[in-house]
Amino acid sequence: xxxxxxITSPDFYxxxxxxxxxxxGNQLAKHKPKYALYRDKTNENYAYLAEEFVCICKDVGDxxxxxxxxxxLAKALDASGVHLTSxxxxxxxxxxSLKLEVIVSTHTHKEVLKAQALGADAVTYSPVFFSPNKxxxxxxxxxxxLMKTRSIKIFALGGIINETQIGAIQxxxxxxxxSIRYFY
Length: 184
Fold this sequence. Notes:
It is built from seven helices and eight strands. It has 184 residues and is of the alpha/beta class. Strands 1-2-3-4-5-6-7-8 form an eight-stranded parallel β-barrel. 38% of the residues are buried.
C-alpha cells in the first residue's frame, strides 16, 4: 500500500487560521495521508500557519507533519520533520542531529543516491507525470529503474491527480506518492 504525502499550496489553502484549519482538516480526514507538508514560499505569516498546521496534523489523526525548508522552526514547533529542497543537501546532518525526519526533493537518480548517502529518511522524486512548470516528465519506467538502485524511501511526485496514475505508480513499488492537486 502506497503511503500518501499531502503537500499544501497557497493556491488551495487559505491564508487565515480558521480557513486553513477548515480546509486542511477536511483534506486530512478525507484522504488520511501518513505524511503532510506545509509548503508556502510566499506567506509572510508562515510561522503562524506552520504552528496551526502542526496542531491540525496532530488533532486529525496519525499524520506526520513536515515544514518546508525551515529546520529550526520545525524543531521549535515539534513537527515530525523537515522537507528540504535539492539545494539543501548540506542541511541534512543538522536536521538529523535535531531528531527530525528528513525528506529531500530530488529530480535525478544521482540526487536520490546523494540524499541516501547523507542520511535522509526519504525523498520526493519528480516530476513523474507532467506538472506545470516542472520540466519534462520522467515517467513510470524511469521510476522503476530508480527503484532498483536505492534503499531510501521514495515518494513519486509530479502531476499526480487521479487513481489511474496512482495505479501506474504502484507498479514501480515506491514507498508512496506525494501530491498537491490529488488531495484537493
